[in-house]
Write a structure and sequence with these properties.
The complex is a heterodimer of chains A (106) and B (121). By secondary structure, chain A is an all-beta fold. Chain A is built from no helices and eleven strands. Chain A is 0% helix and 50% strand. Chain B is mainly beta and 121 residues long. Classes of the chains: A mainly beta (106), B mainly beta (121).
Chain lengths: 106, 121
């Protein structure tokens, strides 16, 4: 099973700041990595697929990069609605999710 | 409007069975693979099972293999999950999710709100 490790577990930032979230895979997943956002009481929302492609309707401040084992989700300038939990997911070998990064308001 | 609505959750004793359903609307159901993803209370996401557009490719997480069965009814636009031999650790909110493509291997672009399954004596 491919294990995804996200860091940090919690990230405390202020609106307007840049957020950088990391996801590391235990073995190469090529570019088969997605990022999801989940707010309390809501279903997850797809942000990025195949490492760097924004999903439909996702603002340009969200961007993804990486390949192989190391991936990054960047939010260029945080809006109040961006504070949530973020998960990475690999689809190289069926599916696994990372444990999540909680992005909280500082 | 593209929508997924889950049903069938509830409180069940260990060892018993439950069948979850997911009603799909607003898109051509048989063009896409479908999945079940669960989330235990206060925990992260766990992929449970997936099925491609024509049921030709099916996969399960090791934690449910041999106990859960995924199926789909393309004529009625429904996805199902038959859960047998339930355990306390199966307690979770179960989400139905649509893949971006017909392939079972793709990201999930539409999610339902979930149906809660509680396994307890």
């Amino acid at each position: 099973e491919i294990v995804l490790t996200q860091s940090p577990a919690t990230l405390s930032l202020s609106p307007g700041e840049r957020a950088t979230l990391s996801c590391r895979a235990s073995q190469s997943v090529s570019s088969y990595l997605a990022w999801y956002q989940q707010k309390p009481g809501q279903a997850p929302r797809l942000l990025i697929y195949d490492a760097s492609n924004r999903a439909t309707g996702i603002p340009a401040r969200f961007s993804g990069s990486g390949s192989g084992t190391d991936f990054t989700l960047t939010i260029s300038s945080l809006e109040p609605e961006d504070f949530a939990v973020y998960y990475c997911q690999q689809r190289s070998s069926w599916y696994t999710f990372g444990q999540g990064t909680k992005l909280e308001i500082k | 409007e593209v929508q997924l609505v889950e049903s069938g959750g509830g409180l069940v004793q260990p060892g018993r069975s439950l069948r979850l359903s997911c009603a799909a609307s607003g898109f051509t159901f048989d063009d896409y693979a479908m999945h079940w993803v669960r989330q235990a209370p206060g925990k992260g996401l766990e992929w449970v099972s997936g099925i491609n557009w024509n049921s030709g490719i099916i996969g399960y997480a090791d934690s449910v293999k041999g106990r859960f069965t995924i199926s789909r009814d393309n004529a009625k636009n429904f996805l199902h999950l038959q859960m047998n031999s339930l355990r306390a650790e199966d307690t979770a909110l179960y989400h139905c999710a649509k893949a971006r493509d017909s392939s079972v291997h793709d990201a999930f672009d539409i999610w339902g709100q979930g149906t809660m399954v509680s396994v307890s004596s």
